[in-house]
Amino acid sequence: MLIVDAKHLKKYYDTGAEQSVKALDDVSLGIKEGEFVAVVGTSGSGKSTLLHILGGLDNVTAGEVTIRGLEITKMKEEELTIFRRRNIGFVFQNYNLVSVLTVYENILLPLQLDGATIDQKHMNDIITNLGLTDLTGRHPNQLSGGQQQRVAIARALAAKPALILADEPTGNLDSATTMQVVGLLKTANEKYHQTIVMITHNEDLAQLANRIVHIEDGKIVERM
User: Is the confidence at residue 151, as pLDDT, over 80?
Assistant: First the structure.
């Protein structure tokens, strides 16, 4: 079953020059439930643009994205905001934690914004498996980069989303912590059957995924 079905995505930017910049140029991609897909490309290849469009964070020039059978590219902003909160978890390079909230409060935040019932067993399981049990009362400025990214992963998993989108999630981490964080994403994929799309320029990290998609100059050039 396809969780994500993206068809003929185009994202063009008008720079005022004779030709527009084609960040995405007719990209189609299907992602099955439970897959861990790595999208690999150099800087400026279009990989982050693809991720942002899959997550409803950016608009397309043309094409469509369907997630869980619903076409998000036709949703109005308020409808899309609610859909994202309930169906998509995000893990960014810069963690995006709320500094005034504790670790536990940061993890709960998406559920509270949605007024959702908290599955305490699921929460405890996530916190334990991500090694956050002793950190739940701390604030982000009391954590290392690797610890903050683990909190971001826990927050992304809390609402049991259809899809987790990770945009260069290890970009600010050292090599040892990088492998630990990607290993945690791999564990989330295997333990929770979580569908994950990870953007990276690191071919070694990409090898941990089930499938690798290469993108260059706004086009998918290789699938493995």
Answer: yes
